[in-house]
Amino acid sequence: MTTTERVAKVVLVDIEGTTTSISFVHDVLFPYAKENVENFLRDSWASDDTKQIVQDLQQVPQFADYKDTLSAPSAELDAKLITGFVRYLIDKDLKVTPMKTLQGLIWAQGYASGELKGHVYEDVPAAFQTWRDAGLQIGVYSSGSVAAQKLIFGHSIAGNLTTHISAYFDTHVGHKQEQNSYENISKSLGVAPERIIFLTDIPGEAAAARSAGLQAILLQRPGNAALTDSQKSTYEVIQDFKTLYSLKLP
Questions:
Q1: Among 14, 59, 140, 206, which residue has the fewest nearby CB atoms (within 10 Å)?
Q2: What are 106-141's pLDDT values in tens digits?
């Protein structure tokens, strides 16, 4: 099926490598979180939100691994220890839910101050507008927290795009390369899986979505990982959203 023949009720978009450049996430957002995590933790250490995040981080299997790397592990749980662990997770690009929640809180301060503006490709705002005008719903599914997703689109270089988006999903619904996650999203939306189009740059995610019955299309944006010939023959591959401007309801 080609893009001009596709129909759907929901367009479900990934963020990194799909609506937003990978370089923005890795060269802007992650370094900002690494640089500001210690001050954030020290300033908010006594808050209930931070206490919960710290408690959750200690339950992550990698926490023990991280402490084993320390020459002189801290005898007490403090902001310095958790800061080091969060930076360790960021460096390894591990998709750990409490760390993603913490990053979202740190980024919120950056967006509020104007230090951060969410990157979106130039074709994204027009696609969102076109799909909404055609009566389609737009959802977001990213490993970044829902709060962080709303920040990127709410404070984007193209303005506030959240008015177009009706649903957000993160790893609380399941991991992105697991079929069950997409089944959960379909149920949450109340839309049959075959009426949902998932747009992503990761073949493993496309495979999981397709196994759940969703339509899946791969994005080959600048800076994305190269696709193999097998992946190109297995999935429809597009360079941007422009070929999907013609999407219609069933």
A1: 59
A2: 999 999 999 999 999 999 999 999 999 999 999 999
β-partners of residue 196 are 10
φ/ψ of 5, rounded to 5, equals: -100, -10
DSSP-derived letter for residue 19 is T
8 Å CB contact between 235 and 202: no
CA–chain centroid gap for 243, Å, is 23
For the chain, give the number of residues. Answer: 250
CA angle 155, 161, 167 (to 5 degrees): 110
Can you tell me the distance from the alpha carbon of 202 to that of 214, in angstroms, rounded to the nearest whole number? Answer: 15
Predicted structure pTM score: 0.87
Q: Transcribe 128-140 into DSSP letters.
A: HHHHHHTT-EEEE
- Residue 234 burial by CB count (10 A; 0-12/13-18/19+): exposed, middle or buried? middle
d(CA 214, CA 27): 32
Query: Which are the contacts of 129, defined by CB distance < 8 A and separation ≥ 6?
Result: 164
Q: Work out whether strand 196-200 and strand 215-219 pair parallel, antiparallel, or are unpaired.
A: parallel
**Strand, coil or helix: what is 99?**
helix
